From TrEMBL, chains A, B, C:
Start and end residues of each SnoaL-like domain: 18-144
UniProt keyword Translocase, yes or no: no
Signal peptide residues on this chain, from the entry's feature table: none
Pfam families listed in its UniProt record: SnoaL_4
Protein name (Swiss-Prot/TrEMBL): Nuclear transport factor 2 family protein
Keywords, ordered alphabetically: Plasmid
Amino acid sequence: MTVQTIGEGLAADEGALYARVQQFYAEQVALLDDLRAEEFAATFTEDGVFAPSPSVPAAHGRAAIAAALLAAHERRFRSEEVRRRHWYNMLRVSVRPDGALHTRYYTLVAVTRPWNPVPDIGPSSVVEDLLVLRDGALLTRERRVVPDHLSF
Amino acid sequence: MTVQTIGEGLAADEGALYARVQQFYAEQVALLDDLRAEEFAATFTEDGVFAPSPSVPAAHGRAAIAAALLAAHERRFRSEEVRRRHWYNMLRVSVRPDGALHTRYYTLVAVTRPWNPVPDIGPSSVVEDLLVLRDGALLTRERRVVPDHLSF
Amino acid sequence: MTVQTIGEGLAADEGALYARVQQFYAEQVALLDDLRAEEFAATFTEDGVFAPSPSVPAAHGRAAIAAALLAAHERRFRSEEVRRRHWYNMLRVSVRPDGALHTRYYTLVAVTRPWNPVPDIGPSSVVEDLLVLRDGALLTRERRVVPDHLSF
C-alpha cells in the first residue's frame, strides 16, 4: 500500500480538495447510517482511532471501531427499527505540514421511526478528523467527536 | 436544443462539477420553496419524471410536475401561510457511462408559520436524481424521493 | 490595504470560488458561535453592515457589529450556558459586475444546554451577503438576515 500525502496536486486545487472531502463523507456516512459496520470501519486506516465522545474510551483499529458502532446502536435503539441520518455542516478543511488533512465540522442526527414523519433531531456535535490519502482514496486516521451537551 | 453529456470538460474538474450541482440545487430549491410551480417544473427535462414518494404515482412531464406540486401543497397546508425551506445534505455526485449525473442526498424540510420562531422539521428523506446538461445548463431528468418513515 | 475584485482568477474557477466561500463561512461561523464578538466583527469590512432582522436597526462598522452580537446574546440567553451552532444550506454564489460576491443561503440555529442531548432548533432564516476580497481574504461587506417567522 502506497502512503501518499495530500500535497501532490490535490492540495493545490482548492475546489477539488473540498469536493473530494465532501464526497468522501457522503459515502462514509451512508455506511454509518446503514449500520454496515465493517464497511464503515474499512474507511478508517488499519490503525484508525474513533473517539465518539469524551465520556467513553476511543476504539483503536477497524475491528474495535466496527464493534463499538454496533454496541452503541444496540444500547440506544435495541431491536427498534429506525432510519438514522447523520448531517454534516460548516466543514473546514486544512492541509497540515505532514500532508494529512485536518477537518472540523458540525453534526446532527435525524432519527425516523416507521410511519412517523417527524424525526428526532440531536445531539449536536463538533467533530475533528485527520484524513490521509492511500492508493488515491481518502481514509480516516482519527475521529474525535464532542457532543455539545457534554462539552460544558 | 443541443443535448450534451457531462463528460466534456466539466466531468474532469471534480471541484467545478460538485459546485455546479450544488448551485443548481440551490436555485432549483428556491423555486420549489416559493411554490413557483411552473418555473420549478422547467428545471426538469420536458419528459422529466418526479416521484415524490413511493406511495403516490410519479408525475411525468412539466405540466404534471407543476400540478402535482401545487396539489400536494394544498393538500398539506390548504390556505395556511407558511415558509417552507428544503435542506439538502451529504450529496454524492457520480458521472454515469452515458454522461448523465447520478446524485443521492438527504433532505429535511423546515416549515415556519408567522410569528413562531420554532419551525416544524421533517420529514427526513433520501433523494436520487438523474441530471443532464442541456445548452450548458443542468436539468433534472428524474427525481425519486423516499421519505424515511415510509421506507421500512 | 489592497482592494481586489473577485474577478481575477478566482471567479474563473467555479469550484475554487464555491469552496472558498464555504470555508470562509465555516471559519466565520466558529467565531460567531463561540461569541468571539470582536474577531467575528473583524471578518466584516471596516464599514461593514450587519442587519440581523428587519425588525431591528442594522449595525454599521465593526465596533457596532460586535456590540450588537453581545447584546442580542445577552437579551436571549442572559447568563445561561449554551452551545449555539449556526447551520447554513442551499448556498448560491454569484459574481456581480463590480467584482463583489453576492450570496444567498438558508440558516438554522441549534442551541444545546448542558446534559440535554436534544437541541432547540430555530429560527429558520434567509441570509443575503455581499463579500469582497481584500489582501487575498474574503470579508463581509453587508449581511441582511430575514427570519422566516418575520417574513410574512
